[in-house]
Amino acid sequence: MEIGKQLEYSLYVYPRKIINIGAYYLEERPCNKILTQDRSHSIIKRVLIIEECSLNISRSNMEVIGIFGILIISCFFLIWLWLKNRFNYWSSRNIANPPCSYIWGNMKSVLLQQCSFADITLKHYEVFKSAGKKYGGIFMLWSPVFYPIDLEIIKSIMQVDFQHFVDRGVYFNEKADPLSAHLFAIEGKKWKLLRNKLSPTFTSGKMKMMYETVVDCTVGLFRVMDKEIGNSVDIKDILGRFTTDIIGSCAFGLDINSLENPDSEFREKGKSVFHRGLLENLKQFLLFSMPNLMKNFNLKATPNDVTDFFMNVVKNNVAYREKNNIFRKDFMHLLIQLKNKGKLVDDDKLDSENLTEDENTITMEEIAAQAFIFFEAGFETSSTTMTFCLYELAKNKTIQDRLRGEIQKVLKKHDGKLTYDTLMNMHYLEQVINETLRKYPPVPMLVRVCTKDYKIPDSDVILEKGTKVTIPLYGIQRDPDYYPDPDKFDPERFSEENKNSRPAFSFIPFGEGPRVCIGTRFGMMQTKVGLVALMLNYEITVSKKTREPLQYDPQSFVTSTKGGIWLDLKKISPNTVELLPQSS
Q: What is the superkingdom listed in this entry's lineage (predicted)?
């Protein structure tokens, strides 16, 4: 019985020990069940089957894991081959390109926000220029980008052979992201039609119409500046609020009043577009590198909250004006005319007879997109230009005094009336602004995309359709071959004599050719108004709070400084100036 019990215990607890049971007849267990020889064989058989199945499953698992591992390795190998072939794109065409990472391309430091766009543009420009190259190639992530250095090639791309480079290659998605489908981004025939419609809104006549709205905003500027007398001021912040109020009024017909309320929602939404976090920066790189693929995922270039905010502002604005028959001398009024009539009522140059009804008018979404880009491009670039200009004037008292003297002299000739035409007659002011734009262009690079195969002049290089092109604006305008001692601020570079001595396309802060910035006149107007107002009322010096030498902010695509630019103000004898909207 002891043997039976022991065997029974072994069968249930240590079944693998039971191999040959023989003819033992085991007594009944406490559960009153008899274990016979046949039954013991059955149990052993089941144990062995289970063990065999376990071994088979283990073998199957190993096979699956092995196959899966091979697939992963194969995928990585294929990706590596694709990347290797991709990053041989320029060398296989005998075009120089700097060493780069297979993942990041040549823009890793910018993507990770360790370096600004301006700094990397100058670096690449100097690499190719020092090697004696007329052009080169870089990679933005894994997207090849043609990098012309020679001004004649740049002229061909932007102007002479423009039909090969009609588009900018900037991401937009009309359905998923309506605000992205603005004049700066859209392509082909749609761009041409919209450009023709919008061009009349930026003539000198239309600028005069908006001039009064611009100068009205100087009242708030004086109020804020006067409060800061004796203190150091972050001039970029103040001028950003100033231009926000101007564009908000001219583009949307709204009294933003961000000068008095720095935390206004309008101001905050506008700023958020230009100052990107790391993930947002990566998304923008992906949108630029693979726009067609990203469209399939309905990715948005504009954050949802920004889209909702501006779409609601525009829809409510247009509805209110149309319901109450409101007329304002601003950009929104001109857009509403295009929406309802297909052209401006006082402009007969736009040929709309050959257009379909859909082509002849613009939609509410198109109005919102144009107002949005007018706001975004206008407030940041102009405030940046004024900021750097005032910084250089604060460091160069001789230039500051000369500029103030010219302003006072021109005003005296016009009985103290600062009209639009008076403003345009201040030639040294224009030289000062142009030198600022040379040294600190708001946008450090211009982009194009090849829309059909193109042979680079005087070479065997063929740019394939779809190839992206970057014009290194910042590098060109810091080139000592065109601007000796380029770090020196010298407005005399833009005297008529000196301008004519330089080659064409050595100064293109607003672009050039058919896709030149449509808002150049407006940007210059608001910049001039702001500088004249400040020069007439304040003497400025650089505050100790300004970090020198200046360092560019890597989180901003627009050229901007880390830590801001701080100035000390001194009120000077007030000048009696009458700001008038009409031409004298």
A: Eukaryota
